[in-house]
């Protein structure tokens, strides 16, 4: 698995889109009050890793509730995860602006896997609204598989590549 994650650093095909996303994030987010809030300057470290716990926790718990027959509660948790996704994505984009080329490659693949996951959970929610609970459970399962891939890439970005580490080292001293 480690080799697969390291290979993500070499996927040059994503350099153009990754650069465009980083440039847009820099223009829109950096330097604004919202950007500082999203980047975690007030906390001393990135906010994105904290925010991801809400959609992941909600979606994982939703699947557990599916397995125990609590369909309504599972649907509600899928909705909570979907509602928590936009601020989580915005915080990730704020961090993306500071990444170097190799980190952006992994970051864009991380974001792409998580976009697939969010799409799967949106399909899950829609199925559940139509009374198609079994299909909703299948979509949730697929979403969690995509979240797992995205999480592995995010972990590689943070821990192996050190994205965001020391960003505020010495700040406020």
Automatic annotation (TrEMBL):
Residues 44-165 form the DUF2231 domain. The chain crosses the membrane at residues 77-94, 106-125, 137-159. This is DUF2231 domain-containing protein. It comes from Actinophytocola gossypii. InterPro entries: DUF2231_TM. It holds the Pfam family DUF2231. Keywords: Membrane, Transmembrane, Transmembrane helix.
């Amino acid at each position: 698995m480690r080799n697969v994650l390291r290979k993500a650093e070499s996927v040059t095909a994503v350099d153009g889109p990754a650069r465009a996303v980083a440039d847009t994030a820099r223009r829109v987010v950096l330097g604004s009050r919202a950007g500082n809030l999203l980047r975690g300057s007030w906390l001393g470290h990135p906010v994105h890793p904290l925010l991801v716990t809400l959609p992941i926790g909600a979606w994982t718990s939703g699947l557990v509730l599916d397995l125990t027959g609590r369909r309504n509660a599972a649907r509600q948790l899928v909705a909570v995860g979907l509602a928590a996704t936009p601020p989580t994505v915005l915080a990730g984009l704020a961090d993306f602006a500071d990444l170097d080329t190799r980190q952006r490659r992994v970051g864009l693949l991380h974001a792409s896997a998580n976009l697939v996951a969010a799409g799967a959970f949106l399909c899950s929610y829609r199925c559940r609204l139509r009374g198609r609970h079994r299909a909703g459970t299948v979509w949730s399962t697929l979403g969690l598989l995509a979240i797992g891939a995205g999480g592995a890439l995010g972990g590689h970005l943070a821990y192996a590549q050190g994205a965001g580490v020391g960003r505020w080292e010495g700040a406020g001293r």
